[in-house]
Amino acid sequence: MSSRELIVRYVRTRARLTVFVPLAVVIAAMGGWTGGRVDGWTGTANIARGALTALAMMLAFRVWDDLEDRSRDAREHPSRVTVVAHSVAPLIGVAFMLGALGLLSVVVGPRAGSRLAAVCIAVAVLAAWYRMRPVSTRAVLNAHVVLLKYPLLAFAATPAAPQTGALVSLYLVLCVYEIVDDPALRASIVARWVAISECALVSVILATATLFGGRIP
Predict the structure, then answer these.
(1) Long-range contacts of range 196-203, CB-CB < 8 Å, 24 or more positions apart?
(2) Residue 162, phi then psi, degrees to nearest 5
(3) Residue 140 in contact with residue 109, Cβ under 8 Å?
(4) pLDDT band for position 116 (cuts 50, 70, 90)
(5) Of the residues 16, 25, 89, 152, which has the fewest C-beta atoms closer than 10 A?
(6) pTM summary value
(7) Is residue 213 predicted with pLDDT exceeding 60?
(8) pLDDT (average), residues 140-148
(9) Structurally, how many domains does the chain consist of?
(10) Domain annotation covers residue 52
């Protein structure tokens, strides 16, 4: 498999642009909606810039997630592209390029320090988890730890800091989506109860936001 074939196959089967592109747009819009205005950073063009920043960083982290799961996938998903590839170096190169582009967008924008800190926290949390997680870790726990990166990336992707309630809601919605989307998690009674609880918590947050005139505290 050539480098080009590997990257194309990865994008087609694992990048899931039909999920990540809308999510990136939601993240960019969420910053403007709940975080307020930032001078010189309003309008459609800047939402697009925030979405591209979010998309680049999310895809970079997606590659990292898949590379860390290669040994597990070799047992459970032996046909997955990251398992059958003779070399994953091209994917590593793409991930570094996307990560660098995302970080560059952060560095040249407002709140550069706090936004970079959010990315560093996401990297530190995942690095620690991947090094320390037991082999027997339940899938539902692993999913919830790995998904912690998304509110941090949402904080980093846009110039206006999204409100805490919005970031928590994003995390909970993604956790529910992961449980619904993953057949193994969907079959778990524990995971289903976790998803129900998370849906209830999101409802409470939205109800509270309604009481505050549409703003999520």
Answers:
(1) 198/172, 198/173, 199/172, 201/172, 202/169, 202/172, 202/173, 202/176
(2) -60, 150
(3) no
(4) very high
(5) 89
(6) 0.88
(7) no
(8) 93
(9) 1
(10) yes
The answer on pLDDT for 195 being more than 70 is: yes
The H-or-E segment that residue 63 falls in is: helix 44-68
If phi > 0 it is left, if psi is from -120 to 50 it is alpha, else beta; for residue 196 that is: alpha
Do the domain assignments include residue 217?
no
Domain of 76, in residue numbers:
3-211
Summarize the chain as % helix, strand, coil (round to 5): 80, 0, 20
Q: Which two tokens stand for residue 107?
A: 């560095």
- The pair of structure tokens assigned to 56 is 């680049």
Q: Which amino acid is at 15?
A: A
For residue 101, the number of C-alpha atoms closer than 13 Å in the C-beta half-sphere is 18
The CA distance from 197 to 216, in Å, is 19
Instruction: Give the confidence band of 158 by pLDDT, cuts at 50, 70, 90.
Output: confident
